Hints:
By secondary structure, this protein is an alpha/beta fold. The protein has 2 domains: about 5-180, Rossmann fold, CATH 3.40.50.1950; about 190-400, CoaB-like (Rossmann fold, 3-Layer(aba) Sandwich). The chain is built from 13 helices and 21 strands. The protein has helices at about 20-30, 50-55, 75-80, 90-100, 105-115, 125-130, 130-145, 170-180, 215-225, 255-265, 310-315, 330-340, 385-400; strands at about 5-10, 35-40, 85-90, 120, 145-150, 150-155, 160-165, 190-195, 200-205, 205-210, 230-235, 245-250, 270-275, 280-285, 300-305, 320-330, 345-350, 365, 365-370, 375-380, 380-385. The strands form 6 sheets. The chain has an 8-stranded mixed sheet, sandwiched between helices. A 5-stranded parallel sheet has the order 2-1-3-4-5, sandwiched between helices. A hairpin with a 4-residue loop joins strand 19 and strand 20 (about 375-380). Helix 3 packs across helix 5 (about 105-115). The longest helix is centred in the C-terminal third of the chain and has 18 residues, at about 385-400. The protein starts with 6 loop residues before the first strand and ends with a helix. Bound molecules: cytidine-5'-monophosphate.
Amino acid sequence: xxxxxxxxxxxxxxxxxxxxxxxxxxxxxxxxxxxxxxxxxxxxxxxxxxxxxxxxxxxxxxxxxxxxxxxxxxxxxxxxxxxxxxxxxxxxxxxxxxxxxxxxxxxxxxxxxxxxxxxxxxxxxxxxxxxxxxxxxxxxxxxxxxxxxxxxxxxxxxxxxxxxxxxxxxxxxxxxxxxxxxxxxxxxxxxxxxxxxxxxxxxxxxxxxxxxxxxxxxxxxxxxxxxxxxxxxxxxxxxxxxxxxxxxxxxxxxxxxxxxxxxxxxxxxxxxxxxxxxxxxxxxxxxxxxxxxxxxxxxxxxxxxxxxxxxxxxxxxxxxxxxxxxxxxxxxxxxxxxxxxxxxxxxxxxxxxxxxxxxxxxxxxxxxxxxxxxxxxxxxxxxxxxxxxxxxxxxxxxxxxx
Length: 402
Ligand code: C5P
């Protein structure tokens, strides 16, 4: 009974996957949850309210007024009663209404009155799912703090194969249990992550760059999103994909562009993790035509880029955390500690190029986390995904102390 005494609103909309909501409801009730079902008019075409009220042991709410006696179903009361609202399945139409405040049914009004976190489990055909309007709406809903439980790939009711299958009822029950176990440590937190290298143009076809693959920063963004955070990922030129709706990705090329994006987003963030390998210098002038080979020697005059971490360190408020990385080749701890102070970081993740399997390009990393209270935590060589989990765990502990 992992959900004893938990109050959950289960919203159901008009998708063929609505039949699975019966199994989902059964799973939630079995775990001890009290579930109030709210159905859109279209949902009732797919599964009857009788089934859902029998399984939840409560009348299903669907209309603003009960037809027989005119009792008003208060969406405000429901919204306040609930610890969690889960809409599964949620259609493209309802996503659109929620994103734009089209409150023309009880489910959307309940959503807009809900004081609790909202989880959304989309279900639709693959082309509808990848339509820009759906993607845009999901982005908007995520910016409201809602958590998108991404649909899986597989066979769809249309007979087509692709992304759009609602997560299975058992998986959804586990997501709900995880929420109540507070396994999601960063719900409603906003975190900025920088990742990858920067390219500093020399001429139209050449640049100064570095070997950073962006893997560590992307692993961090994924882990933060898995912990419920709303992530803004500012990525330099990398060959990596992101498909998590709780990650808002901004692609940049140069240190200057990365700096501008970070300045724009940092004020609304709870934390920022500076994982990018930002160029320290850029060509002072960018040639507008390809530079031709002439003499045996040539010089490119360089000027310093802005230290983004240090710039954010200056703007940081008491309610924000700033985390940096240090990739060192010598005097590792000493250099990392002085960087932490110089950039006003709360903690710094040190990886040494002297460690086998650590650093650029590879899938593993070996880190030491140094905190401003002089604490050093050394970790073993691990997959970058696991390293990300260690860093995110440290961040969530520190955020709780603020
Ligand atoms: O000074 P150094 O480049 O070694 O510091 C590394 C840390 O500073 C990393 O967190 C990196 O993302 C950040 N940094 C930055 N802007 C720069 C240079 C480094 O944000 N121009």
